[in-house]
Amino acid sequence: MAQNNSFPVKLFIYDLSGGMARQLSPVMLGRQLDGIWHTGVVVHGKEFFFGGAGINHCLPCGTILGQPNSIVDLGYTEVNEDLFQEYLDSLAESEYR
């Protein structure tokens, strides 16, 4: 939870290929790919990600991708949930429709 008005931020990293990119890329592409990556940012108890319908959110690990391959601790933010959502809404109307 929040400490001193700061909120933890984490990056969830998923391999969309489920490990197949690592196995098949040398044969199919002639070079090694470790994965086909998708990410979500977890803050304020929600996982935010970009998809076909723009900026989406769900509970952490609530996408069809299941558990992330790795989680990176990005530190803390002092941006409260309302201001963060307002910022995402503005991005959703302009750059990330």
From TrEMBL:
Any one GO molecular-function label of the UniProt entry: peptidase activity
Q: Which InterPro entries match?
A: PPPDE_dom (IPR008580), PPPDE_sf (IPR042266)
**Coiled-coil intervals, chain numbering:** none
Query: Gene3D superfamilies of this UniProt entry?
Result: PPPDE domains
Q: Reaction catalysed? A: S-hexadecanoyl-L-cysteinyl-[protein] + H2O = L-cysteinyl-[protein] + hexadecanoate + H(+)
Q: Where is the PPPDE domain?
A: 7-97
Q: Which UniProt keywords apply?
A: Hydrolase, Protease
User: GO biological process: what's one of them?
Assistant: proteolysis
Q: How would you classify this enzyme at the top EC level?
A: hydrolase
Could you tell me the superkingdom of the organism this chain comes from? Answer: Eukaryota
| Enzyme Commission code | 3.1.2.22
Q: Which PANTHER family match?
A: DESUMOYLATING ISOPEPTIDASE, DESUMOYLATING ISOPEPTIDASE 1
Give the UniProt family note: Belongs to the DeSI family.
Name-wise, this protein is: palmitoyl-protein hydrolase
Q: Which organism is it from?
A: Poecilia mexicana
Provide the organism lineage as a comma list. Answer: Eukaryota, Metazoa, Chordata, Craniata, Vertebrata
